[in-house]
Write a structure and sequence with these properties.
heterodimer, A: about 80 residues, alpha+beta, 3 helices, 3 strands, about 30% helix, B: about 550 residues, mainly beta, 4 helices
Amino acid sequence: MYLLFPTEEDAWSRSEQEGISLGLSFHTEGKGSRYVTAPEQTIDGLWALDVESYDLDESEQATTTVDVIFPEPQEEE
Amino acid sequence: MPEKSFTVTRGGVTSTISVNRDIDAGVTTFTRNPLDKTTTRVYVTVAGHADMSGVYSASAIAHATWHQEGGRGQIAAYDYSPADQGNYSHWLLVDDSDADPYFEFFGTFAQDRPWESSNTGMATFSTISEPISVDRTASVVTSDRAGESRPLLSKVVGGAAVAYSLRDLNDKQGNNKVVRVRRESDNQERDFLAKEVSNGTLEDWVNTNVVSNGVFTNIGFESFSNASSSGFTASNTGSTGFAASPISGSNGTVISVSFDINITNGSPKLMLRTNLDPANSSPASNSLEYTSSGSKTATLTAYTNFVALYFTEGDVPSNFTVSNFKILGDDGFVETWYDQSGNGRDSTQATVARQPIIVESGTFQDGLKFTHTDTTNGKRMYVPRSTSELGTEFALVWVGKLTANSGFTKVLFGGVRGVQGNNSGSVGLMGRVDTSSTTATFRNEKTSSSSQSESQSNTLTLNEDSVMFANYDDDAVVFSVDGNVTTDTFSSTVLTSTADLRIMAGQSASGATGGFYRTQESATGICKEILVYDTNQSANRPAIEANIKNQYNLT
């Protein structure tokens, strides 16, 4: 289950926000774990963030999607 | 380890030298402390004149002129007079290029070093810590001497560019930190010394929050038997039934359980509750429904405080048996694998979903466990070192095991992607274990479509530890898996990739960590040790392998 963001920075920001709410070490001790999940760019240029474990608000819940396609790198052998 | 101080008398002058005894991969910091009559170099901070701040040096004589190293600053004893003739030392701090600043301060005659004056004005003096690199490279020891244990790896051969392990490569007592671990249940993190990994402290810490459950009791089932803390048999035909087990915890607690369930009728549900009495309780966690028999694992996340775990009948009629029920231990994940080479090249993973596993369901994995479930959450670690930084003579060492069969050759360590659409200019170690054969490979990806490699067949074994060693010396390759050595000569090797080396992850690359990670080329298994040398280690290979084999009981 993903949330889609227009920029990578926006996606990292949402991941960090979740990290803050979980009390990850970076946000309590200044070092260590900072983000919950990492965004990946989709084939249409958006940034998909896996939010399966996130505590989503209503508007976010309404905009999650599972239909995400990631680009495949060239493979020739 | 605390500092050790030594008193040194030299030329009739006594001074104290403090030695930081932290053993950190061959680099020990010696600090002259405090400033004294033997000091010949001192750090001076000049307020408001950054260009004047820096190291000043002079010979160790009274009232010397101190010159800024690499600058135009001077601190000169402009005038001085003994005790019976005025008793003063008159110091000038001046930029001799433009006389700005031009500052004077005074001390007594005996205060013949500038920092000894009681008021040095705009100048602040401090000691210089001088890192002294101790070359630990010793004669290669290929066998134990009688009655002696095998030496630490750093004593066998030093000078690694990167060194990761859960054992201490530098201190036999294991007093160096080797890993930083995040505990899944509450996201607390802690650094661990090597001895704390081996003596169970790490595993115990990860399981700190694990609670146990009590005997299941019947509330409402018409029939209830064989009750214990590990299960029960329950049935009813028309009423609501609860099998309640005492267990307590707070909001946010994550509890993982495993059990076998045999369902004749009904669709039992599992959840945490706020009270042992169902009439006064409400759900305290997610609820999981079971409609088929089998071995199950479940994770319950509390959203409020709880005191009970319930199985309910789900619907009626209901007839089911739960057995082998147990609370699973916690999980621990690696946030940092500390570099023991002394070069500070720690491998970090700040995104929790991608952190490799070190304790799973309460059990230490004896290494870093990498799984690759999907593109976004596959486990991966990066080394802040690229192929292009290895030079033309280098060696790579990987210790670990593959734990899954696959028809694909997977990246164990390095910068390679492992399949065409290569990461141009990279090198790496790869492995494949499938049902009919195994392959171990040292690979150079020359261009996006061209590669060269040295491979061995059937030297890897599923679920068995191996040590893989590759030495490269201007196209000459020595490749070894558990001591089975083959050689090769590469041609027109390309070593230009600036992508970070990866541990158990296959990824094309653009930049340090970018590019496409793929589960298909990423190795599932456990990594125990990574060594990178940016020097030729072919002569030291037997000693390195002997040390590792002894440590991990490899044959």
